Amino acid sequence: MGLRFRKSFKLFPGVRLNLSGGGLSASFGVPGATINVGKRGVRGTASLPGTGLSYSAMLSAPPKRGARGARQVAPAPALRIEPSPANEWPSPSSAGYIPSPAPSPSLPGGKQPYVASAGMREIGSKGVESLTSHSLAELRDMLIAARHQREEVEADLEEAVGEARKLKTELHKRSRSMFRVFYKKRIAAIHDDVADVTEEIDRLEAWGETTHVDMTFETTDAAQRAYAALIRAFDALRSSSAVWDVTSDRDTNRIQERTTATRTVDRHPAKLEYANNDLVRFNGRGLSFENVNGEDILIYPGMALMPRADGMFALTDLRELRVAYRPTRFVETEQVPADAHIAGYTWAKVNKDGSPDRRFRDNYQIPICLYGQLAISSPRGVTEEYQVSNLAAAEAFAAALEQYQAALAF
Question: Residue 211 belongs to what domain range?
Answer without folding.
Answer: 8-74+142-215
